[in-house]
Specification:
430 residues, Neuraminidase, four-stranded antiparallel sheet, 6 helices, 8% helix
Length: 430
Amino acid sequence: MQNFALRAAALAALLLPCAHTQSRFAGNPPKPKPAFPNQAPRPSKPSPGIEVETITARLNSPWSLAFLPDGNFLITESAGTMRIVRPDGVVSEPIGGVPGVKVVSAQGLHDVVLDPDFARNRFLYFTYFAPPRGEAPALWPNEFFYQQVWTKSLAERRTLSLGMERVASARLSPDNRKLEDVQILAEGAERRVVIAPDGKLLVTGADRFRFYDSDLDGVEHDFTENPDIRRNFSGRVLRINRDGSIPPDNPWLSRATVPPETFAHGLRDPEGAAINPATGELWVTDHGPQGGDEINIVRAGKDYGWPDVSYGTQYDAYRTDGRKNVPVGNGATSMKGVEEPVYFWIPDIAPSGMLFYTGSLFPDWKGNLFVGALEGQCLVRLVLQGDRIVAEERLLLDQKQRIRDVRQGSDGAVYLLTRGGSLLRLVPKR
């Protein structure tokens, strides 16, 4: 009980909105020796001047953005609401028909993506954390998902009914006021949804530490003796058809102990995802614990290491023994059979939304990768050569905004959602 009280007091003192962005409070670990050169230099040619236009600043912790054919914006708010925002900044009342959402720590209502044929069928896909049967939607204190879980034995955890990560489809009514025909497509992931070039849905999900002997920042042992634990419960990418059925070429169908929708595993909290238009492959951003935020290229059946391998360390703020920079898992930053990240950051930037820029409004940005930074309070521009990141530039530092989502509009402008509640439009400075 004493350890529980110490951990609870430490967490309460931090008053964190999200348990995955804590480095500025806890300090940063020393930089490990990378298996490849990282922290690329600034680009030789800096970005042109940027004008930041505020469409609205009246949203409530927005998470994701989609562009409707009628010119309006469809926005999700993590507390469980969807809204329409007009280009002139008018914000609608919440859209009806959204299923009940349990909001606790980093869980809530997250991504929304339009079907490629949305203009005809009005279908969309979204992710959220559903309350357990019989529990009303509500906003819960963080401790109900963290301290009251990791302090229990695995046997006790398995009796808990905390809720479930879900991806669903629905039809948006013609008047944009209601979701209709909501269908649950899959469970076990609730971060980003990406439509792959073959039309399949790729859905990222955070590590579900509550289902195995771990906590949110890893443990001081590994799981190499039972790889299916990580295949099932570490942060995963699911691959499903748009009706929720399982593609016949998914990588783990021949292994009965791995869910058939599993595409890749070993991530921690992949809050950004996008298809690289040059290769058709899925790239994701992944929150590290204390340090070690990553970008990964996700491929079928591959292992990305968590919680065995990480460039970060466990949170100092959660230690009851006074130790600092405690390794995650087996303490390795690289291991045979584990994919190396394309890029990683120490200190943290808390990476979120991701965008490959293909527009013409900013010609110098074509082919660049953009990542929103919550902790870093900036927009990160990354210059690519093939699959290598060769330059990094941090934009909008003067705005001091925690950037949650990054999207490209049909006009070539870049649109941002900030955790503080703003929808912003970036255009070249006049």
